[in-house]
Amino acid sequence: MKRHLLSAADLSRDDAELVLSTAAELRSLADRPIKKLPALRGRTVVNLFFEDSTRTRISFEAAAKRLSADVINFSAKGSSLSKGESLKDTALTLEAMGADAVVVRHGASGAPHRLAHSGWVRSSVVNAGDGTHEHPTQALLDAFTMTRHLGSLDGRRVAIVGDVLHSRVARSNALLLATLGAEVTLVAPPTLLPVGVDSWPVETSYDLDAVIPKADVVMMLRVQRERMNGGFFPTPREYSRRYGLDGRRMATLQDHTIVMHPGPMVRGMEISADVADSDRSVIVEQVTNGVAVRMAVLYLLLGGAQPVGGDE
Amino acid sequence: MSTYLIRNASVLGGDPVDLLLRDGVVAEVGSGLDAEGAEVVDATGLVALPGLVDLHTHLREPGREDAETVESGTRAAAMGGFTAVHAMANTEPVADTAGVVEQVWRLGREAGFCDVYPVGAVTVGLQGERLAELGAMADSAARVRVFSDDGKCVSDAVLMRRALEYVKAFDGVVAQHAQEPRLTEGAQMNEGELSGKLGLTGWPAVAEEAVIARDCLLAEHVGSRLHVCHVSTAGSVQIVREAKARGVDVTAEACPHHLILTDELAATYDPIYKVNPPLRTRADVEALRAGLADGTIDIVATDHAPHPHEDKDCEWAAAAFGMLGLETALSIVQETMVDAGLLDWAGVAERMSYAPARIGRVADHGQPLEPGSPANVVLYDPSVRRPVDPAGSASLSRNTPYRGMELPGRVVATFLRGRPTVLDGALV
């Protein structure tokens, strides 16, 4: 693996499969009474969050702590965009504290890339979501969740539905799932597909009803409230009718098809409550798997030399 | 005042001749001129061009003296072979009154490294709401003839029409920063395959082209002349080409960085490559070069845009738009146009001296190197190659996108009205 995890494109198929198999070993910890391993004892992981994201931060925090790392949470509200302390000065501060890994969430696309490549810090940088660019650990946990239900992803059909234009989850998933051999179809109104999407390793469609009956996985993306009034589509109701996953549409899925959502959900908008709470929904399991996958990423970036599980 | 005899200069790339500069003018041109009492400058192997004229420079003073001052900016200009620059109006306060343009003009005279022609704002405070006192700026000591809200677009069609009409009274020109604001809200880089991949908000070519097309039609309708700043797309070149063919009185400029750099550089997320308008694709670069070669693009203008280090040493979205340009412009034109066989040195003189002086109605610059012309001369060695070293810049800022790139050519000497501002490649 590379020293940093900035983009799902940084992962070769071997890398990705190593993360997933490592996560599978670590996942079994979650079912034990003592959930801790000594693998990263004495190492320091900094969670540097310039954007509110309670669930991702908690997930990384739990992952680092279960590997016995010291964890520092740094919520830098107000990046240099809002004239607070600059990303650079924050990075220099963390460097001075001796961070081994920096997990960064930032509203600006490319901020983790700058952190990793500007000579500000020497530690490993993990992208925990940057602007509308990428969120590679989310893609890893999604792939991990899919493999637990479907086995190998080779030739599996994954529909990713919603605001692809602004979604870092969609970008990372498209890249990683293609690496793992899945066939991805992005489904969105034309206004929410990025320019140049035809060069991505995916299919696209404007027609949800045509795509989902063949899908093995249907992943719904959140539609952010601020997009609803941005003229990307006429009304939330129209969006729900055309691109929402409700009980009627769920009835057209194959028996084994799972429904995913990276959260937080807008129930009644992109996904109806009965779908979110149905047996097909693996949304809660995604959260559990998130900790295991992030443990695997931190372990492989920082500790990778020793076998997982230490002396056991 | 000293007399200078320039020996064996290749004027516009022609056969070597001597040039005698005396009393601020080119006194004689010929072979074996008498050096009596003159300081001799050996220009063997050097190309002599008329002093370069930049129609698009940001000198940042007043307001952002941490980025550039009139003095430091004109030093950089002289090092780049310029004898005249047009200082853009987006200072703090904005150059939208006779008082501010006269201040900038006076600072230029005091600095003495090149002539400074202030550009006046089209609208009060660059706000795009009502016309600034264009006539007062035209009548001031600064004698403003170029008006621009550069950095912002005069997007209101009525306001643009009125500005185009109004400046006819004093033979002015509106230099439009063509950027449809709604199509570029939050825009960070050229819209295309790469912007989608990088998650940086796209800046579509149509946002530039739609405004240029509209302005050409407006200028045609009211019979005014129009200048288009920093043309960056192939579509814009074609729109200007078609307008000129119809007889519209439109001129256009291209910036050195748009002639050589492409949007691929945004993949580094290093905002040293962040500029307005953004770096475009290879096809756009080729179209700009072709347009500059065939005269569709009249001039090269630097859009020299100094920024302090902290405004570039950050994440892309937080960084300022713009890059340095004065000291590297001629080298880039050599690399992309002359060495590529698209333009000869006479063509360079036209695009970087005569034409910008004509557009800006600057009488004392952009004259052929003939007896009686103002002695504004640059001596340039096209035979050397050198890496760009930001630390060596005369600008107060260091935001050059060419760091470490090897570029051809070197300005050996610049003369402003017969007085050297640069000799032996160093400021005098």
Automatic annotation (TrEMBL), chain A:
- Protein name as annotated: Aspartate carbamoyltransferase
On whether Transferase is a keyword of this UniProt record, the answer is: yes
Keywords from the UniProt entry: Pyrimidine biosynthesis, Transferase
| Function noted in UniProt | Catalyzes the condensation of carbamoyl phosphate and aspartate to form carbamoyl aspartate and inorganic phosphate, the committed step in the de novo pyrimidine nucleotide biosynthesis pathway.
Q: Which of this chain's residues are annotated to bind carbamoyl phosphate?
A: 55-56, 105, 135, 138, 263-264
Pathway(s) annotated for this protein in UniProt: Pyrimidine metabolism; UMP biosynthesis via de novo pathway; (S)-dihydroorotate from bicarbonate: step 2/3
Question: Pfam families of this UniProt entry?
Answer: OTCace, OTCace_N
Q: Which organism is it from?
A: Nocardioides oceani
Which family does the entry's similarity section mention? Belongs to the aspartate/ornithine carbamoyltransferase superfamily. ATCase family.
Q: Per the database record, which ranges form the Aspartate/ornithine carbamoyltransferase Asp/Orn-binding domain?
A: 155-301
Q: Which reaction does it catalyse?
A: carbamoyl phosphate + L-aspartate = N-carbamoyl-L-aspartate + phosphate + H(+)
Residues in domain Aspartate/ornithine carbamoyltransferase carbamoyl-P binding? Answer: 3-147
Q: Example GO molecular function term?
A: aspartate carbamoyltransferase activity
Q: How does it assemble?
A: Heterododecamer (2C3:3R2) of six catalytic PyrB chains organized as two trimers (C3), and six regulatory PyrI chains organized as three dimers (R2).
Enzyme Commission no: 2.1.3.2
The record's section on InterPro entries has: Asp/Orn_carbamoyltranf_P-bd, Asp/Orn_carbamoylTrfase, Asp/Orn_carbamoylTrfase_sf, Asp_carbamoyltransf, Asp_carbamoyltransf_Asp/Orn-bd
Xref: NCBIfam families: asp_carb_tr (TIGR00670), PRK00856.1 (NF002032)
Chain positions recorded as L-aspartate binding sites: 83, 168, 222
From TrEMBL, chain B:
Q: Give GO MF terms, alphabetically.
A: dihydroorotase activity
Name its co-factor(s): Zn(2+)
CDD domains in the cross-refs:
DHOase_IIa
UniProt-listed InterPro entries: DHOase, DHOase/Allantoinase_Hydrolase, DHOase_cat, Dihydroorotase_CS, Metal-dep_hydrolase_composite, Metal_Hydrolase
Q: Its pathway? A: Pyrimidine metabolism; UMP biosynthesis via de novo pathway; (S)-dihydroorotate from bicarbonate: step 3/3
Residues the record marks as active site: 303
Asked if the record carries the keyword Zinc, the reply is yes
Enzyme Commission (EC) number: 3.5.2.3
Metal-binding recorded as keyword = yes
| Free-text remark on how the cofactor is bound | Binds 2 Zn(2+) ions per subunit.
> What is the protein name given in its UniProt record?
Dihydroorotase
Write the lineage as a comma-separated list.
Bacteria, Bacillati, Actinomycetota, Actinomycetes, Propionibacteriales
Provide the residue positions that the database annotates as binding substrate. Answer: 58-60, 90, 276, 307, 321-322
Where, in this chain's numbering, is Zn(2+) 1 bound?
56, 58, 150, 303
